[in-house]
Specification:
Elements (H helix, E strand, L loop, with lengths): L14 H6 L7 H18 L4 H10 L10 H6 L2 H13 L14 H25 L10 H35 L4 H15 L1 H5 L9 H25 L4 H18 L9 H4 L4 H37 L1
Amino acid sequence: MSWTRPFAARPSPRASDVALSDGCGVPWRDVIVFVVLAYGIAWVLWSPLVPTIAETLSMGRTPEKFHAGIEVAIGMYAPAVAALVMRLFVSREGLRGVLGGRPRVWHIVSAVLLPIAIVLGAIAVVVATGIGDATPGGSWIQVLGLLLLAGVPIGAVLAFGEEFGWRGYLLPKLLPLGEVKAAVIVGLVWGPWHLPVLLAGLNYPGENVLALLATFMISVIVLSLLHARFFVASGASLIIVALLHGSLNTFSDRLTDGDHLSGNPLLVSGGGLIASAIVIPVVAIAYWVARRRRVAPATHVEQSKVGGRS
């Protein structure tokens, strides 16, 4: 696994070595300042949602429809703004090499197509079990083709605002803890950051607040592990994780929303329990394969040393 050094302004070990370590070199001050900035910028921009949020909390259920202004879309770039502030003025890594390694073709293909398989798999389970009915709003080939050609590029651009912060800045800071621990911590930060828009009805309209928060956190932590694995495997490529995030959003938002897939969104949506149940074994297999690839070269080296002494 070859890696490029993502930050040139401040010397750092190779990302592959950091991801495999279990050290204590986490710059917690930078982590805390970044998280405060990412939350603060977004939540200030989302302040027009406060009346809707207050109503949600008083009723204990989210609105049946999510009504969002331009401030919601702008707020999604708060992690990127926070990362820029950190890189330029606080931790001062600079922007050189910020996009990470050069992704391989199979990284790009898998980042785009895996979300399609996950979403279609979730829809298949929903329909096969009778939990809901799928109405794509056209032929499946036409809808999937349009989403792939037009939706994914747009989705990736929108997702880049989050990925520049969560994976581009926060995850590398936490990788000295090990990839899995780092990914889980990122998920624990990433999930609650969405709280204002979730309470305003995003993803889970008309649902119990506590139930949606539990469901969303399961989804986010599982997806954080998936994004971290793509990030590490692709040489810290922000393009890859933006494509993965954008493809997930594009296909889940269009194919599993209430207009195209009936059923309880806590189960059937892209952030529902069925989709998470599909992602979990995918993540488990990905980490198992990565671990075997790391162990195999080490075993080969040890055997070579033994052979050399005999």
